[in-house]
Design a protein that fits this description.
The radius of gyration is 22 Å and the shape is globular. It has one domain: Growth Hormone, Chain: A. By secondary structure, it is mainly alpha-helical. It is 78% helix and 0% strand. The two termini are 20 Å apart.
């Protein structure tokens, strides 16, 4: 087994990061298209959430299993298969003629994403030696973050010039380039001591994670104490507890529960979960604020999210700061900065305009970049290299569960607060119109355009109600980010104590022939 690092690792990193761009972009590019889907597909508020979250549900449910399969059968194979599935599902989404069909094709995209995301990080962890791994992961996180920030801009431009399906077709050229680069530059790797598959563990993890995410998604629509919601959470608790018991007793577990005894793994996973809670929840709210309240077009709204591109600077800066002052301080500071930025956003009113949001978004991007890169490196650095696929999948699962929870909780707080705030303004409307106007600001503005002179009063009341409700929702996100900072401060070690990765050879590849 060669002890030498893979010679073309930095070129391979560029390909792997590009593979991940479409996943980051896909989450946010769709947000600017939501108002268009309301008009063109007549999607209800519930259907909009399922268009976003069918992808998240499948993605999160399959991550652990796909990571384990990549470790066993080959991480490059998982990457290539995932990109092909993602491309085909993207094409299907572009031409979906109904909300129901779009929900199904988005779920198929989740299958592809569940193969892509853990394989990229596990290959990076495998081909880079420990002394370069932190910077490589920071670059990976920065480029992935660029996809998140670029999504609204690209989506807005496409919606200005083409139909809504173009936000999915844009994935195809990116995937084509990544596939070509992957075949040429990315080496195959797998667990050299692969154990037999754990089908029972896989089934329990898929069912448990799916039930958990389903409960999170349904809670805003049905209520957090509704029978369906409670049943989903109860089922998730039983299934995931059974998964833990099974993995502890299994001779060949898919996920070693002992990983969670390592504070670097557990505390960093919590930090990643909470930062993605804040990120996805805030973007879900802000894209609506920029269009419905400030009146920007989809393209203009997309450009006005770009101050978060400071995430690209925050990630590599954080990697260098970790080398000097340790992971604990950097992650704690990053989450604190995110909390401050969210607190600033919560203070805007209907007349504040865009400038306060721009400053807050730039600050938020720096904080998120400063959190994601060192926390991810902490997770991966605490695990054996042979289990990089499962470790990466665990890291990605925390991201997706955190993101889904962010959209659900922030969306639920927003919806509840908005419905209460606008109630006086819709009390004189017919019951059906009042119900629709109370459901979303977009519906209220649409109704306002059809009721004559009273419409301007309803529109203004809807905007004021939305901004007040956004303040409540974003304050919740700020509190969650601050909680993450406290957890990192209390439990995240400043330095590794001698991780498994450092005790193993830096390179365990079955490398493809190079010319």
């Amino acid at each position: 087994m060669s002890q030498q690092p893979y010679s073309r690792r930095w070129m391979a990193l560029a390909v792997l990061a590009l593979s991940l761009v479409v996943i980051g972009m896909d989450n946010t590019i769709l947000n600017v298209a939501l108002p268009t889907l309301v008009r063109d597909l007549r999607s209800t508020s519930s259907e909009l959430q399922w268009i976003v979250d069918s992808y998240v549900l499948v993605f999160a449910g399959l991550l652990l299993t796909m990571g384990a399969l990549g470790d066993r059968f080959g991480r490059k194979l998982a990457l290539v298969a995932g990109m092909i599935i993602f491309a085909l599902a993207s094409a299907g989404s572009a031409w979906a003629g109904s909300a129901e069909l779009l929900i199904a094709t988005r779920a198929a995209m989740g299958i592809g994403a569940a193969l892509i995301m853990p394989s990229t990080l596990s290959i990076i962890t495998d081909i880079f030696p420990p002394n370069e791994r932190g910077r490589a992961i920071a670059a990976w996180a920065a480029i992935a973050g660029l996809g998140i920030v670029a999504g609204p801009v690209i989506g807005g431009w496409l919606l200005e010039h083409f139909w809504w399906g173009s936000v999915f077709l844009v994935n195809l050229p990116i995937i084509s380039v990544a596939l070509a680069g992957g075949f040429a530059l990315v080496p195959e790797s797998r667990d050299p001591q692969a154990t037999p598959l754990d089908p029972i563990g896989a089934a329990l993890s898929i069912a448990g994670l799916s039930a958990l995410v389903f409960g999170i998604i349904e809670a805003p629509e049905n209520g957090w104490t509704d029978g369906v919601t409670l049943l989903a959470f109860g089922l998730a608790a039983v299934l995931l507890a059974t998964f833990v018991v099974w993995e502890l007793r299994s001779k060949h577990p898919m996920l070693r529960i002992s990983f969670f005894r390592e504070p670097r793994f557990t505390a960093a996973s919590i930090a990643i979960t909470l930062v993605f809670f804040a990120l996805f929840g805030t973007i879900f709210v802000l894209t609506q604020h920029l269009q419905f309240v400030l009146g920007y077009s989809a393209l203009e709204a997309g450009f006005r999210v770009t101050p978060m591109a400071t995430l690209v600077m925050g990630a590599p800066l954080a990697a260098r700061m970790v080398e000097r002052i340790g992971t604990k301080v950097v992650v704690t500071a990053g989450l604190t900065v995110v909390a401050i930025a969210l607190w600033l956003i919560s203070g805007v009113d209907v007349n504040s305009g865009y400038a306060p949001l721009a400053w807050a978004l730039a600050l938020m991007g720096l904080g998120m970049g400063g959190t994601m890169a060192p926390a991810t490196d902490s997770i991966m650095g605490s695990l054996p290299l042979a289990k990089a696929g499962v470790g990466s999948a665990m890291n990605d699962t925390t991201r997706m569960v955190g993101g889904a929870l962010g959209v659900a909780v922030i969306g639920s707080v927003l919806s509840s607060s908005y419905g209460h705030a606008i109630a006086p303004a819709v009390s004189n409307l017919p019951a059906r119109a009042a119900s629709a106007a109370s459901d979303s600001v977009g519906a209220a503005l649409n109704i306002a355009g059809h009721i004559g002179p009273r419409g301007s009063e309803l529109a203004q009341a809807a905007r004021i109600s939305f901004v007040e409700s956004m303040g409540d929702a974003v304050l919740v996100a700020a509190g969650i980010a601050l909680l993450g900072a406290v957890i990192a401060l209390l439990f995240l070690p400043a330095r590794p104590r001698g991780s498994a990765t450092q005790l193993e050879p830096a390179h365990n590849l079955e490398t493809i022939p190079t010319h």
